[in-house]
Known about the structure:
This protein is of the alpha+beta class and 170 residues long. The protein has helices at 20-28, 42-59, 106-120, 136-144, and strands at 3-6, 10-13, 63-68, 74-85, 88-97, 126-131, 148-155, 158-166. The protein has 4 helices and 8 strands, in the order ββααβββαβαββ. The longest helix is centred in the N-terminal third of the chain and has 18 residues, at 42-59.
Amino acid sequence: MTFILETERLKLRELTSDDLDFMAEMLADAEVMRYYPKRLTRDLSAEWIERQIARYKADGHGLWLATEKATGAKVGQIGLVRQTVNGADECEVGYLMHRSYWRRGYATEGAIACRDYAFKTLHKPRVISLVRPENEPSQGVAKNLGMEIVGRAPYGGYEHLVFAVKNPAP
């Protein structure tokens, strides 16, 4: 298995169809999916994985599977997603953790690595995160990345806050 990024406690790699059991469990969880339009069935979770695989091929990145270095346990997904926001092409840092791994700092740790990869390797001028106004935990992660609210945008049928941080060395 080839890992894209490593942090102190995490390894990030591309999702494969072998990750379906984990993804289906996570994406069906009502608490995990609270700020998404709906919980996903197993079939929709398989489509989610296929979308990421298509993103890897088209963009060179997408949402990656996050695993604990120490145990190899799958803990969530964190990565970079190309988005069109208010008509602009953007690079979003996205993160979604399995509920049993919440409040351990994994989302922030992995998202910082993704932000740095976007800046240092991909030379992106800025990265964003789209966060629902009521999703305070996710807003906290965005703030931990040095992001500030720069606007609002409709996405997936809901209004989102647009958090952004500029590349300090463009």
